[in-house]
Each structure stands twice: as structure tokens, then as C-alpha cells.
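=== RUN LOG ===
request id: a7f3
mode: sequence -> structure
chains: 1
length: 145
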Amino acid sequence: MVDVGLILYYAVRPYNVPGDLPSEDKIVHAAAFCSFALLATRALYYSIDVPLRLAMGWAIIAGIVIGIAIEVIQKGVPGRSPDLADLLADVAGLGLAVVCTSVGASVVRSYVLRGRRLRATGAIRRSTRSAVARQHEPRDRTYRR
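=== RESULT ===
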């Protein structure tokens, strides 16, 4: 929510402070919407247990709606004007978030699958604690590992 608040605050300020670089404004747009999409996807995925692709889709749709709303609102703000390039930068940031989420999910998935394969083959134990605990357990014929 803080990210959305910051995006809206800076988008509807009545003046625009020029940056050092001509494309700095577009970089800020992309970074803001990338962080929004990453945080929204994470919030939906972990808090209400939505599947990752669905959470990502909702975050992208919300980001596009917010981007369009900002450009419409800027029409009435003194010193600001709507710009299609800003909206394209917003969508580029959302696309970057999709790439980051997809790459992150595939990396996590590969490590999880690798760990499962290694545990299944006996190359690694489930945990050090369980190995130590098994050494100090009383020998009982009814106990099964």
C-alpha cells in the first residue's frame, strides 16, 4: 500500500522537477511499477494463497489500471500533462516484474526439485537435527523410521 501511495503522490504533484537525464522520468516510472507488481504479486501469493500466475495477472491488471488512472488524473493537475510514453514505461516496468517473478520462481523450483532428488537418492539427509536425534533415541522395536 505504501508503494501505491508513493506512486500516486508523485504522479499528481502539481509540478514536475526536471531530472539530470532526459529519460530519468521513464526509468522512475518503470522502477515504481516494477516494485508495485512485485510487491502486489507477493502479497496476493502469500497472504491469500492465490496461485502465482493468477497473482501476477491481477498485479499486472491493477498496475495498468493505476497507470491509466494516473495519466487521466494528470490532465487536470497544473504543470502536468498526460503522456503515452509514461504509460508505456509503466507497462515496461510491469513486464520487468513478470520476468523477475518468472525467473525467480524457476530458480526456486529447480533448487527444490534438486533437493528432493538428492534426498531421494540418499545423497543428503533430511536434516542434521534428525540425524543427531536418531543417534540418541532409545532402541525400541516398535519405533519405525
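=== NOTES ===
The chain has a mean pLDDT of 77.
Residues 2-110 form one domain.
=== END ===
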